[in-house]
């Protein structure tokens, strides 16, 4: 499988945010889905450099798609922080 783009990561985060906001996901389900996304990204790789990925996470944070703690978690999991 080809590496995943930073845009696709943000789309997945948008999808999770929307489902959580609509009440389709419980907190534990959100955590499990986020962990699955991280695993898949680590397995497939990310087609973005460090700066682009950080900008994407900053954008997701600014748009309210993720919390600061989720941004920090993702940054650590991807070796950005």
Summary, kept brief:
The protein is an all-alpha fold and 81 residues long.
Verbal overview:
This protein has four helices and no strands. It has helices at 6-21, 27-44, 50-62, 68-77. The mean pLDDT is 91. It is 70% helix and 0% strand. It is mainly alpha-helical and 81 residues long. The longest helix is centred in the middle third of the chain and has 18 residues, at 27-44. Helix 1 packs antiparallel against helix 2 and helix 3 (50-62) runs antiparallel to helix 4. The chain has one domain (6-77).
Helix vs. strand class: mainly alpha
Contiguous low-pLDDT stretches (5 residues minimum) are none
Give the radius of gyration.
12 Å
Total domains: 1
Q: How many helix segments?
A: 4
Strand residue content: under 5%
Gross morphology is globular
Largest sheet: none
**CA distance, first residue to last residue:** 26 Å
The helix/strand series, from N terminus to C terminus, equals HHHH
Percent of residues in helices comes to over 70%
If you average the pLDDT, what whole number results?
91
Number of strands: 0
List the topology elements.
Blueprint: H1 6-21, H2 27-44, H3 50-62, H4 68-77
Keywords:
81 residues; 70% helix; mainly alpha
């Amino acid at each position: 499988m080809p590496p995943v783009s930073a845009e696709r990561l943000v789309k997945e985060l948008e999808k999770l945010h929307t489902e959580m906001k609509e009440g389709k996901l419980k907190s534990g389900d959100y955590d499990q889905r986020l962990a699955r996304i991280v695993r898949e990204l680590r397995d497939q790789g990310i087609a973005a450099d460090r700066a682009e990925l950080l900008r994407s996470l900053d954008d997701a944070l600014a748009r309210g798609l993720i919390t600061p703690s989720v941004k920090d978690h993702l940054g650590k999991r991807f070796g950005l922080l």
